Amino acid sequence: MQSTSVLATIGIVRQLIFGVYHTGQLWQGGRDPRTTTPVLYLPTVAGGLVSTITLSACGRPDWGVPLFGVGVLSRLAIESVLMHRLYSVELPPPLRPTLGIQLAPPTVGCAAYSSVLRASAGCRAHPTKLRQCCSAIAHSKRP
């Protein structure tokens, strides 16, 4: 096994443990609404999508597909909580720059989807599906 594959495996496993741990804390309740910011996307959404790209680069796009699902479904789940918070409680000025994190999931999601397609069936084989996916992600709910 190459050293890059070993490092990728270690990173992905640690990311999964970290994401499960922090998402589990969210599900336990008792969270102060003022601490709900777009930073919540990072453990599961960013981790899942970047892991998909990593696995595709290591030659295992089939292993990246479930992590792509984790990233997309996590975004959908967290989006409703985040939108409720942004519409109900004012975001303090020091935390407003974190809103830029909301722009990353559509872009990284399209890159992850493209990397899985390119590695498995070739990007030219599914240009319509790629366009539809990127369009759907880009036009999802925004504040």
Question: Keywords, please?
Answer:
143 residues; mainly alpha; Glycosyltransferase; 5 helices; globular
Kindly describe this structure:
The protein has 143 residues and is an all-alpha fold. It has a single domain (3-138), classed as Voltage-dependent anion channel (Glycosyltransferase), CATH 1.50.10. 69% of the residues lie in helices and 0% in strands. It has five helices and no strands. The chain is globular. It starts with a helix and ends in a 5-residue tail after the last helix. The model has no long low-confidence stretch (mean pLDDT 81).
Show the helix and strand layout.
Blueprint lengths: L2 H25 L13 H17 L3 H28 L15 H17 L6 H12 L5
The CATH class is identified as Mainly Alpha
Number of strands: 0
Terminal Cα separation, in Å? Answer: 45 Å
User: Which percent band covers the strand fraction?
Assistant: under 5%
Question: Which class of secondary structure composition applies to the elements?
Answer: mainly alpha
Order of helices and strands: HHHHH
Quick synopsis:
Helices cover 69% and strands 0% of the residues.
